[in-house]
Specification:
The chain is α+β, with helices and mostly antiparallel strands. Helix content is 19%, strand content 33%.
Length: 312
């Protein structure tokens, strides 16, 4: 079984679940998960966790992403993109400068209403499931943050721009909101996720270093796939590496509290809440531990043990 993280280039027409399903067939393993859904019509970076790295999925989903989007002005659809049913059409009378100013005005925080065609759950049901049943419900606005917007090209009614945004931002809804502010409506015509900043340390997965499913299949056939996987501990380059001694080894395997005396090297003045990468006596990465003042020791936050070590 493979364990680690890889950046997959999701091609247009696939759902994120399709990518995971196909990878399960290619890699011959079930334990695979992704860290952030992409719409079927969108393409680009999809960070995928393999094996024990699936425990990272919850830790890697809420970071910033960068997209290249094409906005089509003068049209609205039920899905807020070009795949939906057209609800309205009108001429675009705004000038390029007005369009530029309007788009740039969305930089910073703003309240965004998520689209009906989204995976958000309401009363136990996905919004897109309700939408397919013809039901439209009121959605509460959510605060999102647009870190930066760069406009590449304005060829009315099309506008190409890149956007860097935070957790929970829907680019379809951003396009809708830009169109509404201009008074002509707007939809997302195309979307490419260029990069994902997966951790607070700046670990960035880029479009250029992502692999298509076809390429991954060839790498597996040539027994070269493992060299393209990022190890779990490499996702946290900002954390100090600590190695237990013989006394600490069994405690580590059982996920027990560790004391300073359980490490080979002295950890000087750890701060309350500080996290560490912890390795066993064979220098194998096993867990992320957090120092807690009230316990006067290090408490396991996330374990990444092999089964044979867990049973020691």
């Amino acid at each position: 079984m493979y364990h680690g993280v890889i950046s997959v280039y999701k091609e247009k027409g696939y759902t994120s679940f399709d990518v995971v399903a196909k990878l399960r067939g290619i890699l011959k393993q079930k334990k695979i998960g992704h860290t952030g859904t992409l719409d079927p019509d969108a393409e680009g970076v999809l960070v995928v966790c393999l094996g024990r790295a699936t425990k990272l999925c919850g830790l890697l989903t809420d970071k910033s992403k960068t997209y290249e989007a094409v906005l089509l002005l003068g049209k609205t659809t039920d899905t807020e993109d070009s795949s939906g049913t057209v609800l309205s059409s009108c001429d675009v009378t705004a000038t390029p400068e007005e369009i530029r100013e309007t788009i740039l005005s969305f930089k910073g925080e703003y309240e965004q209403i998520p689209p009906m065609y989204s995976a958000i759950k309401v009363n136990g049901k996905r919004l897109y499931e309700l939408a397919r049943e013809g039901e439209v419900i009121e959605r509460s606005p959510r605060k999102v943050i647009i870190h930066d917007i760069q406009i590449q090209k304005i060829e009315i009614p099309y506008v190409t721009f890149t956007v860097s945004c935070g957790k929970g931002t829907y680019i379809r809804s951003l396009c809708r909101d830009i169109g509404e502010k201009l008074g002509c409506g707007g939809i997302m015509d195309r979307l490419i996720r260029n990069s994902v900043n997966a951790t607070e340390t700046g670990m960035v997965f880029t479009r250029e270093k992502s692999h298509t499913l076809d390429k991954i299949e060839k790498l597996v056939e040539n027994q070269e796939f493992e060299t393209h996987i990022l190890p779990i501990d490499a996702m946290f380059p900002q954390l100090m590496k600590c190695y237990v001694n013989e006394d600490g080894n069994k405690k580590l395997y059982n996920g027990n509290l560790l004391k300073t005396k359980d490490f080979k090297d002295v950890i000087e003045k750890p701060e309350d809440g500080e996290k560490f990468l912890v390795y066993d006596t064979d220098n194998v990465f096993c867990a992320i531990y957090q120092y807690q003042d009230k316990l006067h020791g290090f408490k396991a936050e996330q374990m990444f043990l092999m089964n044979d070590r867990k049973n020691c």
